[in-house]
Amino acid sequence: MPKHALPVYLDCNATSPLEPAVQKLVQRFLNEEYGNAGSRTHEYGNRAKLAVQQARDQLANALRAERDEVLFTSGATESNNLALLGLAPFGEQTDRRHIITGAVEHKAVLEPVEALQRRGYTVTVLPPTSGGYIDPDDVRRALRPDTLVVSLMHVNNETGVEQPLAEYVAVLGDHHAYLHVDAAQGFGKKNEPLRNDRIDLISISGHKIYAPKGIGALVTRRRGNERPPLSPILFGGGQEWGLRPGTLPVPLIAGLGLAAQLADKHAAARAQTCRDFRACALTALAPLGVEFNGDQDRVLPHTLNIAVPGLDAEAFMLATKHLISISNGSACTSHSYQPSHVLKAMGLRSERIQSSLRLSWSHLTPAVDWSAVVNAVERVR
After folding, report:
1. What mean pLDDT is predicted for residues 38-56?
2. Which of 54, 239, 277, 349 shows a CA-CA span of 20 to 30 A to 268?
């Protein structure tokens, strides 16, 4: 590798590179068509409004939803907060103060749920199987007449394990509880499970699907003619049907819309590229005797969560930092490293957790010199 070259980026679950066509579109709306979608008196505002509507359609089409069911936010964290905290007033009005979630959820779900617990809600946090997914039978046993919302993710950000959404949907059936899915890691990679209209609320993040950071969406599906009974958690301006005020970031929204459309259109080809990349990685890493975290039959093809016996994760990352850029957990908590709550919930021993690493890539990831990676690791083990 030339001395000036950057290492190959293998942390796409933390944030993804920009799709070239998306970058071009975002630049156009930043530099040329920079109107405010709320401006009604000139062509700049009109073109901005049309771009926002097109992006709503692109997201809605990917999920078989309606245009007016797509609400733009700053990302999945805000969407999760709006979905959960926004349901709270309705729960209090109807005396439905029970929440079900999973121990492997992102902190952007667990922390709002903890906030509701402090407000008097009862919370059932379901442990995962050793394979890293929540058992649908556990969801069935946890359901109560006063359950307000079940919040379970689509794909885990650390292990890449897909959760059995279709089975959760079957368990809920005609129960009145709302089903919220944090789809930050799965949307754009495997959309079909998210198209089930029993899923009431879906959180999406742009920077996981090759769109810019700072943009996301909350899909709020109607039941019959009724929207989920959300209350705003921010105030001022009335945008997004009064649920998310603030000037719409048109360049980011346009980029998210195009990224969603491209991801849906090219999902099969991108998945195959990721499977091919994964196969090369597995072949090369085999001599290290790596151990896999999570049920590998359920892992999406762009993620590996592994442990190298006899080697701390920090030592692995230090030895290979000039070759690859990887993670040992969620980017949202890496500034103050603590052992992964996901791997702990899965029952892994502490030594295994300390040795665990996450590698995540995309269809845009260049080839890795895996022999150099393995040699660097062998030198420090």
Report:
1. 91
2. 54
pLDDT of residue 332: 55
Please check whether residue 1 lies inside any domain of the structure: no
**Strand-pair partners of 357:** 306
**CA nearest 250: which of 209, 214, 219?**
214
Altogether, the residues listed in the chain come to a count of 381
Q: How many CB atoms lie within 10 A of CB 234?
A: 14
Spatial distance between the Cα atoms of 283 and 186, rounded to a whole number of angstroms = 25
Task: Kindly list the distances between the CA atom of residue 197 and the CA atoms of 183, 241, 315, in Å, as whole numbers in the listed order.
Answer: 15, 21, 46
Containing H/E element for 63?
A: helix 43-63
> What is the total count of domains within the chain?
2
Which residues is 223 bridged to in the sheet?
226
Distance separating alpha carbons of residues 356 and 161, to the nearest angstrom: 15
CA distances from 135 to 59, 139, 149, 234, 305 (A): 29, 7, 17, 35, 20
Q: Which two tokens stand for residue 39?
A: 């401006």
Question: Residue 327: which of 358, 294, 361, 292 has the closest Cα?
Answer: 358
Indicate whether 206 and 259 sit together in one domain: yes
3-state secondary structure of 128: coil
Whether residue 276 is found in the same domain as residue 223:
no
Task: Give the count of beta carbons closer than 10 Å to the beta carbon of residue 106.
Answer: 23
Q: What are 363's two structure tokens?
A: 């269809």
Structure tokens, 252: 């980011």
Q: In the numeric block, which tokens belong to residue 113?
A: 């749920």
> Six-digit token pair at 353?
């957790």
Does some domain include residue 3? no
- Residue 334 domain boundaries: 8-18+267-380
Cβ distance 271 to 360 under 8 Å? no
Whether residue 280 lies in the annotated active site:
no
Which residue in the list 12, 274, 280, 332 is annotated as catalytic?
332
Residues 218 and 271 in one domain: no
pLDDT tens string 371-380: 999 999 999 9
Q: Which amino acid is at 257?
A: G
